[in-house]
Amino acid sequence: MVFRVQKEDVDIGALIEAAKRPGTGAVVLFDGIVRDDDITEMELEAYAEVAVAEMEKIATAAMEQFRLLHVDIIHRIGRLAVGENILIIVVSAGHRPDAYAGSRYIIEEIKKSVPVWKKELTKDGGRWVPGEHGHGSAIL
Amino acid sequence: MKVTLRFFARFRELLGTDIIVEPHDGTRLADLVAEVAQKNTDGYAAIFDEQGAFREFVILMRNKKRVETAEAGTITVTDGDEIAVFPPVAGG
Lengths: 140, 92
Hints:
The complex is a heterodimer.
Chain A: E1 3-6, H1 12-19, E2 26-33, E3 41-46, H2 48-66, E4 68-76, E5 78-81, E6 85-93, H3 96-113, E7 116-122, E8 125-128
Parallel strand pairs in A: 1-4
Antiparallel strand pairs in A: 2-6, 3-5, 3-7, 4-6, 7-8
Helix pairs in contact in A: 2-3
Chain B: E1 3-7, H1 10-15, E2 19-21, H2 29-37, H3 41-47, E3 59-62, E4 65-67, E5 82-86
Parallel strand pairs in B: 1-5
Antiparallel strand pairs in B: 1-2, 3-4, 3-5
């Protein structure tokens, strides 16, 4: 299983192959992408050590709760262009309901607690994307 | 003693990051963050309100563990501490 914060893009095909563990009946891929919201680029930064530890914690909880067989989470940082991958989550499970539910759980938990920030760069400067979860969230 | 302050996102833009300070024994976490933040008016105002209290959304960590901002006035920093100060997360 892979939990990383990195600048480089990811070989999604290789991750899907690696996720096919014995007993796998479904693999679900989530690929978060830089959307064209009238921006030129997006800049991402992370508190990397804490982010990776938190991803592992979320994956462990998801594996228990949804009987997942395998989880990869890779969050990219640095400057990304419209259309580039931001966040890849690969999960495998015996059956599709668990794979879908586990994938959904992981992305929602990442948004609550993994210390990553995004700045949308525009022709006029930039704006930080506000966090959805303020003080008092389930963070860490 | 040496303590490292790490600011992230908007706070980093205003104040820098990986700032090494040498506070005296008994320095409170909240006082240390305030002292460093005071070097930039906008940076200070982003983190502290008009009464000098942490803004409600600010997240603090000490050695990668969450610290409630309400308790930061009673916690003393120690040699080698890493203090992180950041706004709500917005990844994914």
